[in-house]
Write a structure and sequence with these properties.
It is found in: Cell membrane. This protein is an alpha/beta fold. 61% of the residues lie in helices and 8% in strands.
Length: 1240
Amino acid sequence: MLKLLKVLSLCVVAVLVFGLALCSKTSFLLLVTLSNEGTKTLPDGQKPVALLCIGCVLIASSLLLLLKSVWKACHKSSKMPDKRTVALVLFFEFLVAMGAAILTIVAMPHLDIVTNVTILNGVAVLSTLLQVITQCTAKQRNRFLVPSITAFLLILLGYVLFLLLYITKDPTDTRRNIWAGLAVGGSFLMSFNWWENYFKLISENRQTSEKSNPGFLEVLCIDVKECQNVLHILSSLLRIAVTAGVLGAYVPLDKMDWAIVTSIPSRETRIIGIIIGVQLISSALCHWFSLVACKMHAMRRCFILPLYLASLAAMVLFVVPVIVFHQNYRNSLNGTQSSNFRGYCNDVVDARNQSLSGNVFPDLVRDVTHTLCFLDLSRIYDIGLLTGSAACWCIGLVLATLHLWFLSLFRIQRTQDLFVRRLYEGAFIEQSLLLNTRFDIQTTEKQKQFKSLDPVKVFLCATMWHETPDEMMNILISIFRLDKYRPKKEGEAGDVTFEGHIFFDDAFTDVAGSRGAHVNQYAEMLVNIIAEVYSIFLNINNDLFTKKQQIPDQTIVATPYGGRLVVTMPHGNTLTVHYKNKKLIRHKKRWSQVMYLYYLLGWKVSTKYFKRWGKGEEDVEVKNEFEREKKNTYILALDGDTDFTPAAVMLLIDRLKLYPQVGAACGRIHPTGSGPVVWYQKFEYAVGHWLHKTAEHVFGCVFCSPGCFSLFRAEALMDDNVMKKYTAVSSQAQHYIQYDQGEDRWLCTLLLKQGWRVEYNAASDAHTNAPEDFKEFYNQRRRWGPSTMANMVDLLGCATVISKKNTSISKVYMLYQLISLVASILAPSTVILMIAGSLTVLLDVHQNVSLVLAVIPPAIFLGASFRIKADTQILVAAILSILYAFLMMVSAITIIGTMVKDQTILTPSSLFLIFLALFYVITALLHPQEIGLVFYGFIYIICIPSAYLLLSIYSMVNMNNVSWGTRETAPAARDQAASQTKAEKVRSTIARFFSRSKCCRRLCLTDAADERILSRDVPSEEPEPRPQNTIVEEAGRPEEQPRRSTTVAPPHQNWVAQLQSLSNDMNLSEDKLDEEEGQFFRELTSKYLQPVPEDKGKQEIMINKLRELRNKMTFVYFIINAFWLVVTFTLQLLDSSVFIRVPKINFDLEYTGEYIFIDPVGFMFILSFALLVVIQFFGMLYHRMSTLIHYVAFLSTEPMSTKQNHHQPIRKIVDGESEDFDDLSFQGDFRRRFNTGTLV
């Protein structure tokens, strides 16, 4: 399937590049032909129109570049160039603009069609000369020196043959000789266009050979690169001015009148309009799809070859019809007259009158023939010179661009590194694309040694607390799968190296009678699962009867923060599990992140450079190495249940490797689980990623990179006010909301403020468990909602500063985010209005009556929520959600019935329903591998009142509750057979009851045994531990007492012995921590991670502050919604005087004579919503194309060994095998999970 996707994508791109280049070239040549004297399709008096269109072709790309450069100069920093740089650049641009205008406007309309098709290839003359100079200055044997010299000589020979043909044809025809000379001169001036491609290499070669200070060329190239925006603005304006000047001067000099432009007949206007429209659109699209082809790593198949063939196809399209028409004329004579080409021109081509109607194709063919009539094509001399010059130019261009067949590209190639200039030439589309592509000096070796990017180091950092066995299995399989994908080999430096770390929160518990703390049951479970996964990956390729390999001994280390388990995975990479003791180091997720940030970036990355500085090594060299390592060190933030594929990680790495300004990148998160709550989240996540994240990525920056699967650059994290500020302790009420409730969003806020870009990669998939319970879902969103709003307000509050510091964020983009924030704030009142509309249709009452009825339930729920407990609020919300869901279903059915009854779709409700359904269906079709999620859209729509009204009320009212809200479950018992859950106790009671009946005894005993087997993973009923984030409101609750051991003496004296006794398959040997590293952790703990002592007085004060903040924010939030409802209510009372009248149409789109009345506020809201949706839709289209490009490039550049790993045969376990093969069946399940994974 993936190979088919790749093949289809490349075929489509190749056809588009070829077809668009052909359309661009033929349409431009048609404009040139219509400008020729004597053509009949466009009379001589109307030639200025065709010349004006040629001028538009020349300046179109300059105009686009001008607009783009002005936009970048306004919203990004632009450096002013040196005066000498400006003078030289404008001098070259003047020559190029003058040459292009002279060649296309003055000379080419007087040349024959064959010459016009091929002389455009002659613009490579100076490029070939500069290629020779560049390769000679390299002072090494080059592969393409001879082809470049040959190309230069062939193009010169083509000019000689061309001049010989035109001058010797009629030496007395001065005008034709002048046109031929202008054509040669114009094409030579035009060849200065690509000087930047070679000057940079010449300067580098000079500096390398002479080892001198940077000269004029070096300074020029650096200045041109740094001041692109300003130089492009100036050069675009100059080109437009020069083209307009040449065009404006030539028309009166050639005795033509501009006044004819305003009085062109409709037929000629239509012909000219179609040709110029096709030319402009096809040129721009050809340039864009050529970029796509190169970035897909299909330069040969989809870029070079189609552009070569476009010139040949254009020649065929023009010459073959001429031959066919001439042959038809000869056949019509039946041999009664001589039928040479000159006679055909005199009798048919030149003697015809202008056709005012009918098919325009014959006239265009005869106009093309007219350009050849001055030649005697019956003579071998004319044909030889004509074909010789054309062949020399074509072969010269092929040889001049021969190096492109061997050009090396990165997996993600930046446009500025692929094409030297942003500008394309619409009149020379294939020549400009080929010659504008980066030129590299190729050595005489069979394959040039391509300088790859610096190798990168990736730290995988997962945080754990109370994950289930399946969740632990997911993350461990993913890490071991990555170890297999990129094995670590001694003595070999790979492009990517990995190191896994798991930070286990609150892993220790006190056991009476032991000498030290013990790890809890979750920590034990993790060790057992590591042993299981290790064994399976170690023996994954073994046959059925092969003896299993023994797991090597691993290391266990006592540390100042608790303990550490160091595992060397089967393919050499390491996995370290850090067990944290909350009595020794601060716990909770954010502090685990602070711990691994300072440990990995401070100790593992920075310390060695500080030691070198201390030894007196050269500061500049050490600093450069340090900066390089920071740039190429990444941290992959993971949750304890994340399931991902190696390809997903590599796709994120690609973004950071090629784009230095990217500080973080996130992937596509897929929620897993079952039940209606998860189904809702599947569609919600899909919409969020399909539309919101893609729009943020395309138009600005992603504002939140989720902590469950995101890649961060060390250089960005170590920037000022990022990692340091992330360690800030919550000291104010709003800090608990912004810092602790959404730590991933706050970290991204810090990165954005420092000018870093955050991106989204849709091809990088990861799966994580989603809340399946309604209560857990509400508690999760209770954290996310206020923290999202707090961070958004923080960013909008300093929008001016951010837009100046962050080049990816503009004020326009911040306005878009402001509109999105306002829309989210007004979501409750919008839902109430929607419910009111539904009640109006269902109950057939006035709109104001339905509005009052719609406000009553949420108002009562809001008032009661301040008095009742959170669990009761969730129960009431669940009941109301069900009622609202039924109301939404009935409303949808009623709207459909109303459309059928009234025979119209032009009502606000029907338009909204149809538009929403079509929008989601079309969006899903653009994501074919996720199209099944559209069926969950029904649940999403009927749950809108619950998610946007009731959940908003619950989140705002419980803003003062800063608990984590999820995973607050009791630990799973290890000896499952010895303990029973409530369900088992109930089952046992029923079994004892039925055991009195002999006929039921066997059945009940069997069921009870089955129940115990199925419920092994069900947690036992034990005292519930404290949540991961402190519930400030529970300060007054007595602290939990540690559980008392039922045994007199513990089986193990400390946690080391406890873990060593867990598994016979994996032996754990104790080791000691390096003293310097231990000192580092002690200093880190004392400075940032010291456990916070419980202070009842401070907690009470913070409880009051949080409650006060809750009251203020809730009042502001709901008063805004109330204001919106009051405005709507008032306008509905005045519906007779204030409204917008819209004509009503039926299903046949015919006017019915009736009108629909819409209040202006509602209309503006709908218009704003539609605008946001349209913006997001176009952002999604662009992002889908860029994702496809990246993914196809990934498939094209993935190592073959990696591809083989993804397609290993899987042995299936057939039903009926004995229980002795259970372990093999488990291994087969691992293999299936190892080789599967969605990529796009």
